[in-house]
């Protein structure tokens, strides 16, 4: 893998941001709105429920972690969509750039954009609502890593779908985190779900993150084996979606669909 080519993919995204500062605003605007909205909802619940449990790390912490996952996923897909919207695929894939280098560049771009969003969320949550990740202990590093890796996996899967079905399929990608969230129990234990949903939840790595987060807040201890299981699952997810992306790319090249990539479909 040629790192200079990977840097070229990342540099293109940086130039896009530098050329149009408005692109930087969405990196922090929507996540900050979520933090403010859920912060005040949490404060209201705390004042009327009187449960004796600090709801800030339970609800607001869950929102922050889930927004981070969403930023990671959208960071990958947005960098990919820039090439979709500019119809730049033929230029990219006619170059010596390999698929691995291209996808790595998308991931690095996502790291940059999601880190900006995470820092903004942390500063706002700490300043306005007193949320500190210290309450989760060292496990927070495992939580962030698993959510980051799953965001990468879902983002690459989304890119594969759009590459195969065409730009119009991007509307299948934007709501992906929302479709996943009911199964992983962002705000509630998965024991409240029906049996068929619990079966799906057990194969989704974020489920183990939010279950462990609630266990820590309630004073319990987390299961190391559960986090290891989540890590193994997310590694498998990344391997599978990487294989799928390569297969889709080879199929679009072999059938000539890539050359006929239009604003609507390539089918």
- Domain tally: 1
Helix content: over 70%
Mean of residue pLDDT values? 82
- How many DSSP helices? 10
The shape is globular
The whole-angstrom Rg is: 20 Å
User: What is the helix/strand order?
Assistant: HHHHHHHHHH
Please report the distance between the alpha carbons of the first and last residues: 31 Å
| Number of DSSP-assigned strands | 0
Overall SS class? mainly alpha
Q: Would you identify the regions where 5 or more consecutive residues have pLDDT less than 50?
A: none
Largest sheet: none
Strand content: under 5%
Describe this structure in words.
The protein has one domain (3-260). The protein is built from 10 helices and no strands. It is globular, with a radius of gyration of 20 Å. The model has no long low-confidence stretch (mean pLDDT 82). With 267 residues, it is mainly α. Helix 3 (55-85) runs antiparallel to helix 5 and helix 6 runs antiparallel to helix 9 (205-217). The longest helix has 31 residues, at 55-85. The chain has helices spanning 3-19, 25-49, 55-85, 89-93, 99-129, 139-165, 176-184, 195-201, 205-217, 224-254.
